[in-house]
Structures are given as structure tokens and as C-alpha cells.
């Protein structure tokens, strides 16, 4: 178990060069070009294309701002495409990183939270807690990020405080089998990664 503090986060350019990301965590040995999983945050200040992450599954949550509409196309000639609108705090969009995705801001900049996983290696589930709690069985990897206020993580009758702006990482090999984990807090993002 490890709590990762904001001073350990890394600022990196977007893959498409049109902005900057704050990388909270990445698998050991992972790079921007080749990774199994990666957690990051970004400020989106203008409309435009998303980076190509072919072979990856993306989970994007709205942290703040009025909102963003995503358009996913299979090819440039695909005029219709699927649209997803994120207009409430912690609204979640899940999509194939290989789609041609563009974002249109609804009224000014936004901040978002991203989990990207190699679709051939991991299945990911993302939950957004808002003043409630959630109990999950331990998967290969569990992460919790306290967006607003402190979060609480309880396992084996032991409660850990997760300070606002910090990321908790729990790995299955660190705990007893069949352990379940309870998460609670004002606004907490929970990510469960399972090996395929």
C-alpha cells in the first residue's frame, strides 16, 4: 500500500503536443509511448483532437469546469460518430483510445482525470464517490484519488485517511486473499484494475 503525494506527480507534454498532463502514476517501467496503465490529470483550454492511444481503453472524468462534449469517430470520413457529454462533476466517459476523439468545451476550460489501460492486459472499472461509500473486493490493483476533502479507506478493520489531492495504490499481493476494501469520502475516484 502506498500513498502518492502531489509532489511526486510529474508534468509532461501531451502525446499530441497540444497541452500538458500531470502524471500521478504509471506502471513500473512504463513510458508515455508504452505502458500497461497510467493515471493522469489535465487542463483542457481549447477545442481539439485527443491523442491517439490505439490499443488502450480510456476513462475520463470531469473534475471542474462547465463541461466538455467528446466526439468519437472510427475514421475521418465518419461524419456522425458517437458523442458523450460530461457536464457534471465526476461524470465519466469510457472509450476506445484508438478512436478519433475530439473535445468541444461547453463554456471555458475544464480539468479532467484520466485512467488509460492497455486493453489486452487489463480490464478497468472506475467509480466516482460523492458523499457516499463503496466496498469492493481486492483486484490486482486498486487506486483511490481524493478530489475534494479527505477520503477514508478501510481494510481489515484498519482505517487510513487519504488526504485531498493524494493517490492511494493497493496491490493484491500486499494483502490477504479475499480482502475487501471500503472507500468513503466527499468526492473520491476509485479505480479497480484486473489482469486479463
- By DSSP, the count of extended strands is 16
CATH topology of the largest domain: Jelly Rolls
Largest sheet: 6 strands, antiparallel
**Spans where pLDDT lies below 50 across 5 or more residues:** none
Assess the beta-strand content as a share of residues: over 45%
Which value, in Å, is the CA radius of gyration? 17 Å
Ends distance: 22 Å
The helicity comes to under 10%
Broad CATH class of the largest domain? Mainly Beta
Return the string of H and E elements: EEEEEEEEEEEEEEEE
Rounded mean pLDDT is 93
The chain-level structural class is: mainly beta
Shape-level CATH architecture of the largest domain: Sandwich
Give me the CATH superfamily of the largest domain. Jelly Rolls
Structure overview:
By secondary structure, the protein is an all-beta fold. The protein is built from no helices and 16 strands. Strand 2 (10-13) and strand 3 (20-26) form a beta hairpin.
